[in-house]
Amino acid sequence: xxxxxxxxxxxxxxxxxxxxxxxxxxxxxxxxxxxxxxxxxxxxxxxxxxxxxxxxxxxxxxxxxxxxxxxxxxxxxxxxxxxxxxxxxxxxxxxxxxxxxxxxxxxxxxxxxxxxxxxxxxxxxxxxxxxxxxxxxxxxxxxxxxxxxxxxxxxxxxxxxxxxxxxxxxxxxxxxxxxxxxxxxxxxxxxxxxxxxxxxxxxxxxxxxxxxxxxxxxxxxxxxxxxxxxxxxxxxxxxxxxxxxxxxxxxxxxxxxxxxxxxxxxxxxxxxxxxxxxxxxxxxxxxxxxxxxxxx
Length: 296
Prior knowledge:
Elements: H1 3-32, H2 43-57, H3 63-73, H4 81-88, H5 90-103, H6 108-129, H7 134-156, H8 171-188, H9 195-204, H10 212-234, H11 239-260, H12 266-295
């Protein structure tokens, strides 16, 4: 491993430890004040965490399927879904990043600058999202689910770019990729997954699609703890659901990345399309009902 990825992983380890401490200390203070969530993590949410992070490590992404699960089950308030995703999926994605940054060679400058831009975008965007009203989040996540479904369809029908052989970018092309990474990092705070857009972008810019894995997983591993800490501090997440996603998700990542490694995923993507479209319709319907009630 070259020096830059080694330093990047060291920084990620420090960030992950800081996030774990902040999550624990904030919730401990809430419990001491009699305001903590005393519910235990549920087995159902833990299984959902295992499944979504298992397929996340194989490149499916975990935000859209988990959002669909929460919406279909009516598990948590819609406005708390973005925070729950960013908090609960952070530790599993950190594990993914350690595995893929160590295993897949990518140009260090491209890797570090794109990850840094995504983290900065998350830091800029989370303060806005944490204050958004329920209806704005419902509309944003409904649209995000529709976009995710469209990307799954494009992947299954061969509509996504095949990519090239490059392992890095330079000049104005790199500057463009960094700018887009910043935007994707900000959108992650609304629950809009980064994996598919990042994969499309690096493929269009001529990079090997395999190089997208350490970039997109590293970006999420840095930005999700940064955004997740703000959601925890604001109380805009479901603690028990997030903890269950974490506890189930880490084993899911390890099984997928170290044991299974690859699967034929076409039929799974079609199933995800159906579920995600239904969840998008439900999310947008909830937003429409909220608007009707506001004008009643």
